[in-house]
Design brief:
Blueprint (H helix, E strand, L loop, with lengths): L1 H18 L8 H9 L3 H9 L3 H17 L7 H21 L3 H22 L12 H20 L4 H17 L3 H21 L12 H16 L5 H16 L4 H19 L2
Length: about 270
């Protein structure tokens, strides 16, 4: 009888353990169905029910699905909720970690999520018709500035700093803070120049300088335009991309995208 009771107790304990086991990983199709059905909170809850090490991967996949899977009725407030939950979880894990390398890796996960949030919220992407409000630009700016701080703390190189300051400057332009944007986008250009040097490319506003440096000049040119300083910098960036399309066939697609991005950003801030 005692043996039977013991076996019964062990079976019950095993059943309870099974009930408390982490949820299986979500598929991209399941996430897309949740998002399209307006069930973002359910997606967050399902990801949070996974093993701790799998949660951040779940949030990364959720961002990819939300941004790139097509469906009607996308709402950036839902995207904010999803991404903020991922950043918070990465930092919670970092606070609970004890190994310095693990802490750094977890902060870096939060850093990447924050940058992606800032970039996705920017009003500069050709063909992006999502409705943006001031609260989205404010959150994008905060995320860009936060990831800039994390990148300094993590001793990232010039390219990660360049794109962090670019994102911050773009949101400042969208918010009408043109003089702040002028300062921030000049910092972005400085880091883009160092990245260009490190890449073995020549400096200057010429096709050979590469996509990143020309783009950085172009965004600074938009800030100069909004501050009443003329269009020369912007015009030179557009011209460098145009010349590069003709002279450097292997860069033609990137340079054509650079033109579209700059034109989209300029139109957006000019229409505020």
């Amino acid at each position: 009888m005692k043996a039977l009771l013991l076996l019964t107790a062990l079976a019950a304990a095993a059943a309870n353990a099974a009930d408390e086991s982490p949820a299986p990983p979500l598929t991209a199709e399941e996430l897309a169905a949740m998002f399209e059905g307006g069930r973002v909170e359910q997606a967050v809850e399902t990801i949070m029910a996974m093993e701790g090490a799998e949660r951040l991967d779940g949030f990364d996949m959720a961002r990819e699905v939300w941004v790139f899977a097509p469906w009607e009725g996308k709402d950036l407030d839902d995207y904010l909720h999803l991404t903020d939950a991922g950043i918070e979880e990465a930092m919670r894990q970092a606070r609970e970690a004890t190994d310095s390398e693990e802490i750094g890796a977890l902060v870096d996960r939060a850093n990447v999520m924050a940058y992606n949030l800032a970039a996705d919220l920017a009003e500069c992407w050709p063909g992006d018709t999502l409705t943006r409000h001031q609260r989205h630009f404010e959150r994008g700016l905060a995320a860009a500035l936060q990831c800039g701080e994390w990148r300094l703390e993590l001793e990232k190189g010039p390219y990660p700093l360049y794109i962090a300051y670019w994102a911050a400057g773009m949101h400042q332009l969208s918010l009408g803070r043109d003089e702040q944007a002028l300062y921030t986008l000049n910092r972005a250009l400085n880091h883009a120049q160092q990245h260009t040097i490190d890449s073995g490319l020549p400096l200057g506003l010429a096709p050979q300088a590469g996509f990143d440096l020309i783009l950085a000049h172009g965004y600074l040119g938009i800030a100069q335009l909004e501050c009443g300083l003329g269009s020369q910098q912007y015009d030179l960036a557009i011209r460098a991309f145009e010349e590069g399309i003709a002279e450097l066939p292997d860069r033609a697609d990137d340079y054509a995208f650079g033109i579209s991005q700059l034109q989209t950003a300029r139109a957006a801030v000019s229409d505020r």
